[in-house]
Write a structure and sequence with these properties.
globular; mainly alpha; 5 helices; about 120 residues; about 5% strand
Length: about 120
């Protein structure tokens, strides 16, 4: 809602042990509004980055999905959110094993994009 980078905020909070609960959804990030869309709807890469850092920080707390359904079947959307979260958490593990940390340290954005592309 404040147009911040969720992954950066997560790292700052996680390093201080301030993660208590994580609410996942997506939106258009207009200041002052919260769209509550299904996970990864608008910002899939930012969502993946956020999940990557949750994994790296060994977050063990609660994760829930806060979406505002109008026409969608709530069970189907919840199943989608859970499936996508699990898929992207596994993907985060794979890119970690394939050396993304070194590429982040080097700030080699093209190598990072190529790593993501190849998975």
């Amino acid at each position: 809602m404040a147009t911040e980078n969720p992954a950066q905020t997560s790292v700052l909070k996680g390093q201080e042990g301030k993660h208590f609960i994580v609410q996942l959804n997506d939106g258009f990030v207009k200041p002052g509004c919260e769209d509550d869309l299904a996970l990864g709807t608008v910002h899939p890469w930012m969502t993946l980055e956020f999940i990557y850092w949750l994994r790296r920080l060994d977050y063990q707390g609660h994760i829930y999905f806060d979406t505002f359904l109008i026409n969608e079947d709530p069970v189907r959307e919840a199943e989608h959110n859970i499936r996508l979260y699990k898929k992207w958490r596994k993907f985060a593990s794979v890119i970690d094993e394939n050396g993304i940390e070194e590429l982040l340290i080097k700030q080699d954005k093209m190598a990072i994009l190529e790593l993501l592309e190849g998975q």
